[in-house]
Amino acid sequence: MRRRTFIFGAAAATTVGAVRGVAADSNHTRMSHLTDLSAVEAVAQMSRGELAVDDASPDVRWIMGLCDELARLTDGYFDARRYRADGLPDPTGVVKGWAVEEAAFMLIEAGATDFLVNGGGDIVARGSPVPGSSESWRVGIQHPLERNKLAAVLEVRDGAVATSGTYERGEHVIDPHTRKPATDLVSLTVVGLSLTYADAYATAA
Q1: Which residues are bridge partners to 188 per DSSP?
Q2: The whole model's pTM is what?
Q3: DSSP 8-class letter at 135
Q4: Number of C-beta neighbours around residue 162 at 10 A
Q5: What is the C-alpha separation between 136 and 25, in angstroms, rounded?
Q6: Counting beta carbons within 10 angstroms of the beta carbon of residue 80, is it exposed (0 to 12), middle (13 to 18) or buried (19 or more)?
Q7: What is the pLDDT along the chain (205 residues), one digit of tens a residue?
Q8: Residue 198: what are its φ and ψ, rounded to 5°?
Q9: Is there a contact between 203 and 93 (Cβ–Cβ < 8 Å)?
């Protein structure tokens, strides 16, 4: 039987693939820091310069605290308060990976054991595409220069994959240390246990 490869780049569509056994109840809610739509809008307002961090809700300030921790862990290369050219704080670089990871936790709490969640090219994979087997999820990484090719194929079980690069969105990340666009790498992929941290490290690189 042919093994399928799921192909992801830095801006792939959002999907949930091959959930086996149980789906999340539509009434199920997970207590989290961004489940409230008002908090999501607050993050957007902050990134547009319409809301100061000190005036944001405790939930949004918690997200900024997470960003500050990641800034420390990456020696300042991932800094939600300094990476934009206009100097505005913008936690969206960590929120995407964190939100996808929260979706995965919701599936786990609902009883799902075999699934893949993809949000904008960042994924969380659990179990196997063939439940009960030892087969891993095969994740194809988009080649940044030759769009009809793969740069690599990863086999993932119970892990996360995050890709960041300039080939999809251009020079959109500012090096906080030089205040210039980061252009050394066209694409970088990080594999780890936590998508939140993998996404931040991919951006920091």
Answers
A1: 164
A2: 0.71
A3: P
A4: 29
A5: 26
A6: buried
A7: 445 444 444 433 333 444 433 333 333 333 344 444 566 688 788 878 888 888 888 878 888 898 999 999 988 888 888 767 677 888 877 888 888 998 999 999 999 999 999 988 889 999 999 999 999 999 998 887 888 888 889 999 999 999 876 556 555 566 666 667 666 666 888 899 999 899 888 877 6
A8: -60, -40
A9: yes
Say if residues 87 and 111 touch (Cβ distance below 8 Å). Answer: no
| DSSP designation for 149 | S
**Phi, psi (degrees; rounded to nearest 5) at 187:** -160, 140
Are the beta carbons of 67 and 88 closer than 8 angstroms?
no
Q: How far apart are CA 86 and CA 83, in angstroms?
A: 9
- Give the residue among 102, 118, 201 at the shortest CA–CA distance from 156: 118
Give me the count of residues in the chain: 205
**DSSP labels for 162-204?**
EEEEHHHH-S--EETTTTEE--S-SEEEEEES-HHHHHHHHHH
Judged by DSSP in three states, 141 sits in: strand
Instruction: Note the Cα 114 to chain centre separation in Å.
Output: 19
Whether 123 and 190 have beta carbons less than 8 Å apart is answered as: no
Q: Which residue has the tokens 């902050």?
A: 46
* Residue 159 φ/ψ, nearest 5 degrees: -155, -175
